[in-house]
Amino acid sequence: MFPKKTISAALLLLLTGILFPHAIAQESKYMLGILNYNAYCTDKQEPYIEFQFIIDGNTTHYVPASADTYAAEVDVQVDICQKNESGQDEMIGQLHYILVSPQIRDTVPEKGTYFSDTRNVQVPNGDYFLYFRLKDIHGTSDTLKYIDFIQVNFPGDKISTSNISMYERLSASGEGGVFFKYGYALTPLFQQYAPEKIFALPFTFEIYNTEKVLGPQQDFLVKCEIEEIGHLPKPEYTEIRSVKSAPVSVFLHFFNIYKLPSGNYNLNVYVMNQDSVVLASSSAFFQRSNPSVQLNLSDYDDVVVEHTFVEKMTNLKQLQEDVASLYPIASKVEQDFYSYPLKKVSLGELQRYFYNFWVSRDPHDPEGAWNEYKKKLDYVQKNYGSSVIKGYRTDRGRVYLQYGPPTSITSEEFDPQAYPYEIWHYYVLGRQTNVKFIFYNRDLATNNYELLHSDYVGETYDPLWQMKLVNRLSPNSNPDIRTPEDYWGGNARDHYKYNE
Predict the structure, then answer these.
(1) 21, 52, 223, 294: which could form a disulfide with 270 (CB 3.0–4.6 Å)?
(2) Which CATH number goes with the domain that contains 237?
(3) For 66-102, b where at least 16 C-beta lie within 10 A, e where not — what string?
């Protein structure tokens, strides 16, 4: 009825190379590498990118470092590039060095051994592609590769902010952290993933030029909020502080997220003057997993639908269908509602759920928000649905409703060996750039394309997608073969790689 639940990409990456999903097994191991990077600026208006690396020592190879000690070495390279007028990469900066582990007394480190480092690279303001390459010098695995995009923009005559850094743990005692900054031991919240065990979400960011723009020792406001994507921020996750102007202001805060439900969130910060006019802002995406917080039908007992547009929705069968159509855009907690058999839920309970759903998204015009969504439902029904299956229940319909229209679509119906397929490309989706979804049609008779693979966090990730795509005429069950042999008319690999 609804899309199958899959391992989130954050967890998948932890299993196959953490941030580097293309890690290759080496003697039954993967080299696990975690990285984090943010843009900052000095008080002299010198922008730079801060890179943080953590390597799992248990997944690297140790060699003699002295007569009785051993160490591992990882070749770290980051190329910082811009596109020139011809569309080619032009290197603006580079980080390249050998990251050496602490020395140990055995070739096998103790469980939980990590080694880490922080490096800064100064760059001018601009938009950059980051090309990462990490290699275990003494191992046999392939180089871990990763590409991402970052914006560096710190104007000298305006107030601006750094990126937001979120942490799993922050300690003033200097214990339990991996990095040290602002006088604290910090454990970064890598993968922007906050599991149930995390009760608090500390974060920091820097604010620049308030003294220059506002004058010395002037008061300004900083507003912080946690916003579930598609919802309005709640008061319990909103706070405003008064701060004094300075060349560089360091802001440190935390939210109690013990009762924050599972879902996708933005952590937003706003720098405002005394009249609440926004002068600068920043945002960071994170995922929360908190299965202990669940929905109950009684949660909607206080919702009043009288004298609202929902009061007239008295056709039980149609309202069941309307409620079901909300699943693609429902939050994790709201999706718990669908664990109840809808046929056993009363008309009043359906009405209260439905009205609360839209009021939480647009308290000023919930009916208008529903009408706009209905237009999207009509679109996916026309383009992806049929008389047999509703458009919102198809994979393409669900992705369209959940994420919006893609930037571009590549469609192929006549590949000699592959099933008919579509590649949807999003330039920017959430915190990720260059995101792709691959759908294919296995039954060849209907318009129901299934989601085969995506590199978006939380979606179906299948490293064998190329083999499964051509399984129509070339079945192969060997999991070690990930790419099919080239054949005349086969362009799926090129479409995926160059659809940018």
Answers:
(1) 223
(2) 2.60.40.3880
(3) eeeebbbbbebebbbbbeeeeeeeeebbebeeebebe
